[in-house]
């Protein structure tokens, strides 16, 4: 009996689809305070990076690098934070967060620094379009 991939309900509720890569769904965290991508490998039951087969793990690293480059090119980020925490959502997912020396959380972590602020529709559509173009250009 094979297990199929399904996106965790919290990730689905908190993020917006951006792109489908070979391994990962790329999603935008709906928090306008910080441009923030979440990569979710479409691998059933994966919780930790070490749960992936070596070839899949290498593909994940390549896709993290691709997402990082796309996010930096679109936002002009001064720093990128990349993390796979999974303390609240066990499903393997990787955060790629654009950081700026003048953002409200700098130099600390973004989690809990300020209340979440959802993107307004125009800003969300514009950012997703730019990110989608950046992924297609790679």
Automatic annotation (TrEMBL):
- Which intervals hold domain HIT? 37-106
| Molecular-function annotations in GO | catalytic activity
Recorded hits in Pfam families, A to Z, give: HIT
Q: Would you tell me the protein name for this molecule?
A: HIT family protein
């Amino acid at each position: 009996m094979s297990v199929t991939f399904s996106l965790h309900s919290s990730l689905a509720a908190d993020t917006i689809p951006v792109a489908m890569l070979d391994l990962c769904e790329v999603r935008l965290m709906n928090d306008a305070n910080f441009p923030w991508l979440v990569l979710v490998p479409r691998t059933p039951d994966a919780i930790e990076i070490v749960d992936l087969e070596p070839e899949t793990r290498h593909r994940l690293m390549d896709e993290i690098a691709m997402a990082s480059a796309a996010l930096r090119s679109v936002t002009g980020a001064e720093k990128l934070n990349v993390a796979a925490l999974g303390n609240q959502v066990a499903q393997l997912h990787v955060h790629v967060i654009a950081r700026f020396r003048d953002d409200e959380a700098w130099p600390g972590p973004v989690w809990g620094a300020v209340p979440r602020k959802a993107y307004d529709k125009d800003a969300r559509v514009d950012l997703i379009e730019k990110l989608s173009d950046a992924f297609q250009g790679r």
